[in-house]
Design goal:
Blueprint (H helix, E strand, L loop, with lengths): L1 E18 L5 E20 L4 E5 L13 H13 L5 E6 L11 H15 L7 H8 L5 H6 L3 E5 L3 E4 L7 E6 L6 H6 L14 H7 L5 H7 L2 H10 L4 E6 L6 E5 L2 H14 L4 E6 L2
Parallel strand pairs: 3-4
Antiparallel strand pairs: 1-2, 2-4, 2-5, 5-6, 7-9, 7-10, 8-9
Helix pairs in contact: 1-2
The chain binds cytidine-5'-monophosphate.
The site of cytidine-5'-monophosphate (C5P) has 11 residues, from strand 2 and helix 5.
Length: 276
């Protein structure tokens, strides 16, 4: 049996440069990944099966075009393999929340399939296979700190602050990525700055934060509460939201902030983790 962690993705910064004729947006983003995520297992079987378990499984119940199954179909067509497989997805992270979710699950499925069929997962061909499933899937395949441009698929690996403590907070609202992108006002505020990963993150922005906050004002409350805690070197919304993150210099500062936020908003989802 093969197990892959579908690590949660963060956009430490996300700058939108233009709306494209094909409906996508030209962007520059700094992807980073955390230690925790959904878990996908894959094994040879008599017949195909797919099971979703875990705390957020119900959010996906009844979905016929799950990205994991689309990844399986894409891999089989591309590489001409059809041996039956049992796949199980342990859905531990909230869905439609700006931290990868379906893209990370699809990427974990592709990595597991590559291992099962003795292929490399980080080839141009596999990255293209991932891109056909979603703009963030190539970055999620690599699951390391990487600068992305284009739709998010032109990737340059970077040395990131591995081990840096992170707090994720999701204030309970699912947002449609397409709806948040559609709310971008069309004004280019400039490229990602230069510098170390942390400098780029701190001097950068998330251009999807204003339209996401218009759709879900609770994101503003979430950012305010996170910014009122001591010790964060950066607090921002990830992707199209609504998950927000803070980076900390020490695990103690992160844990203190998490306890205070959990006490103030017991209904919000929190994850104490670290960058990989
Ligand atoms: O690529 P993916 O299917 O994950 O994107 C979901 C939606 O997010 C797209 O249909 C599009 O509306 C929006 N998007 C975008 N520009 C990008 C990436 C995603 O407009 N670079």
């Amino acid at each position: 049996m093969i197990t892959e962690v579908a690590r949660a993705k963060l956009n430490l910064a996300l700058h939108i440069r233009a709306r494209r004729p094909d409906g996508y947006h030209e962007l520059e983003t700094l992807f980073a990944f955390v230690a925790d995520g959904d878990r996908l297992t894959l094994s040879a079987a008599e017949a195909d099966s797919f099971e979703i378990v875990g705390p957020f499984a119900v959010a996906l119940a009844g979905e016929s075009d799950n990205l994991v199954l689309r990844a399986l179909g894409a891999f089989r067509r591309r590489y001409g393999v059809d041996a039956p497989l049992a796949i199980r997805l342990d859905k531990r992270l909230p869905v439609a929340s700006g931290i990868g979710g379906g893209s990370a699950d699809a990427a974990a499925a592709l990595r597991a399939l590559a291992r099962h069929f003795d292929r490399a997962f980080d080839t141009p061909d596999m990255l293209q296979c991932g891109l056909e499933l979603g703009s963030d899937v190539p970055a999620c395949l690599l699951s390391r700190t990487v600068r992305g441009s284009g739709r998010g698929e032109t990737l340059v690996p970077l040395d990131g602050p591995a081990g840096m403590p992170v707090l994720l907070v999701h204030p309970g609202t699912a947002l449609s990525t397409a709806a948040v992108f559609a709310g971008w006002r069309g004004i280019d505020h400039g490229p990602l700055p230069d510098g170390s990963v942390l400098e780029v993150a701190q001097r950068g922005r998330n251009d999807l934060q204003p339209p996401a906050q218009t759709l879900a004002p609770v994101i503003g409350e979430c950012l305010d509460l996170m910014q009122r805690q001591d010790g964060a070197v950066l607090t921002r919304m990830s992707g199209s939201g609504a998950t927000c993150f803070s980076l900390y210099e020490t695990a103690a500062a992160r844990n203190t902030a998490a306890a205070a936020i959990a006490a103030a908003r017991p209904d919000w989802w929190l994850l104490e983790t670290e960058l990989v």
